[in-house]
Design brief:
Largest sheet: 6 strands, parallel
Helix content: 25-40%
Distance between the termini: 17 Å
CATH architecture of the largest domain: 3-Layer(aba) Sandwich
CATH superfamily of the largest domain: HAD superfamily/HAD-like
Mean pLDDT: 92
Structural class: alpha/beta
Order of helices and strands: EEEHEHEHEHEEHEEEHEHEHEHEH
Radius of gyration: 19 Å
Shape: globular
Low-confidence stretches: none
């Protein structure tokens, strides 16, 4: 076994499908987080799910028994806000397709949700989606406004008997209707991991990205030059992972197996 974890100083953790699924915490999650702390490895919770605000995630994590504060969490909505401020600083009015929580987060950052005279369009994971708003968003996209998607995920993991249609699938409908594709933020945009590395004063090769999706979590790590760790507790299968070129650096059944490897390689 290669000592791939020995030089890792910070782990960026996907949440749904990695630490829990829907409302069910994986049994191995808390021991894994304890293994990180014992080894002196920091961690950031990262999600592409923009249906919840960061305060919502803090409440959810704490309810599951995972101690967290907002500073521990980075979301695709944060990445979108950072992009707007850097590349479209004049934009204040947004036609925003998202949940009330997402709208509140953008409002808290100084943006106004405006479907009558917006300066840009932002599409997120909208579990409150209705047909009228979908059509109105399509109209503004068709008018040539800057068009952003918070993330590319097609479905959201769930432990319920349903398929949760996520932002990427919503955008697929909008793209078919308008002929336009958005600037996509969130994972797999490598700037997220680069920002985490800067925040903690680390080189990117000291960062590991742990997640259950090949086209977001693993792709982002590979683009950034971080260690890519795929857990098989969510969306991707081992067969899909091994067929990738290149495959993930590490493939484990769950974070419990990763924690055991970390303890073996660091002696923690």
């Amino acid at each position: 076994m290669n000592s791939v974890m020995r030089n890792i100083r910070h782990v960026v953790l996907d949440m749904d499908g990695t630490l829990y699924k829907g409302s069910q915490l994986f049994e191995c999650t808390l021991p894994f987080l304890e293994a990180l702390r014992a080894a002196g490895v920091g961690y950031t919770f990262l999600t592409n799910n923009t249906s919840r605000s960061k305060s919502d995630y803090v409440r959810k994590l704490c309810a599951l028994g995972i101690g967290a504060v907002e500073q521990d969490i980075y979301t695709a909505a944060d990445a979108t806000i950072d992009y707007l401020r850097m590349h479209l600083p004049h934009v204040q009015r947004l036609a925003l397709l998202g949940t009330p929580s997402l709208c509140e987060q953008f409002a808290g950052e100084g943006f106004t949700v405006d479907f009558t005279g917006p300066q840009a369009v932002v599409v997120g994971f909208d579990m409150t989606l209705d047909y009228g708003r979908l059509c109105r968003i399509a109209w503004w996209i068709s008018q040539g406004l800057p068009y952003l998607a918070t993330h590319p995920d097609l479905i959201c993991p769930t432990d319920e008997a349903t398929v949760l249609v996520d932002c990427g699938a919503i955008c697929a409908a909008l793209n078919a209707a308008t002929g336009r594709t958005p600037v996509v933020l969130g994972k797999p945009n490598p700037e997220i991991l680069e920002g985490v590395a800067r925040k903690h004063g680390l080189n990117i090769d000291a960062i590991a990205m742990v997640g259950d999706r090949l086209y977001t979590d693993v792709a982002m790590a590979q683009r950034a030059g971080a260690l890519s760790v795929l857990v098989l507790s969510g969306e991707a299968t081992r067969e899909e992972a091994e067929a990738c070129a290149p495959p993930p650096d590490v493939i484990v059944e769950n974070v419990g197996e990763l924690g055991a490897r970390l303890r073996a390689e660091t002696g923690a």
